[in-house]
Design a protein that fits this description.
The chain has a three-stranded antiparallel β-sheet with strand order 1-3-2. It is mainly α. About 70% of the residues lie in helices and about 5% in strands. It is globular, with a radius of gyration of 26 Å.
Length: about 350
Amino acid sequence: LNNLRNFLLTKIYDTMLVILGVVVVIFLLFNVLPADPARMMLDKREDSEQLNEIKKKYALDQPVFIQFLYYINDLSFISVLENNNKDNYTYAKQKKYKYFKIFDIGSKSIVVKKPYLRESYFKKGERVSSIILSTFPNTVVLATSSMFLASFLGIILGILCAIFINTFFDRLIIFFTAIGISLPSFFSAMLFAWIFGFLLHDYTNLSVTGSLFEIDDYSGEKKLSLINLILPALTLSLRPLSIITQLTRNSLIDVLSMDYIRTATSKGLSKFKVLFKHALVNALNPVITSISGWFASLLAGSVFVEYIFGWNGIGKELVNSLNNLDVPVVMGIVLLVSLIFVFVNIVVDYLYSIIDPRIKT
């Protein structure tokens, strides 16, 4: 229990440092762009009075360092707010989120609140958190489906290749997995869309574009459309499937050549028991690392695949936000991506200690 507590405290500290580093880099990066957020909120209309009001309201007239402190104050669970309403920026933020006051220090209050990711410049009045919540579940469905398919088939094919090493089956699988690894995701997405969604549409009934939920043309109702999941899920699973297959094969071949496996075989244990009870468990560490890395990447948003197939996930939202220079949305998505990678790595580190007792948390 103490080891687990120390492990979690260490990871939480590391997570805070990672997120702080990401916030600093992304914030500084977008502050050197030539775009003017205040002018974007006015739809590029020339109105100097309103322009100045917006800049003052959102502290865009302040130095970059002050803007950064305001942004950290918005993101933090514990924030500092003004007691009076004279400061337009603070007053605007007080109206944007609910908070619980802890205590007062002079004219300021220390409060507890949810992290505030601000509002979209392009979708006026819509919160970044709402935009992410509306698109992230679609990405979760797509990433989970893709990784389940890649992991299940990849481990099975890797085991079969290790059993039937140097046979025609083994060489054939290695050949196709090499192709799968070398194909960029945007190319395989266009290839799959063209072949199965366009050329063979009459046979597959698959569409080139479509998301998890579609609006019915007649009733206007939102309907679940799982058929749209097939092509993007197959496309996304192609590269991780190939890598997991080769990793499982190579790792299992190495483990099967070790002394303790030969000892277990000499004791009369069945090949099935030796393979699945002794060899496979010890061969899974690199496979788990690969699965976790790919799963985090897919959850972070497979930008090209979602955009090509019109899948309404955070990858597609990120592309649209970058095209529109919607800075708050981009920063919110990047922060979410960072948290996903950190969280997945924490889970994987803990799983290592369960699978292999030699690894301590």
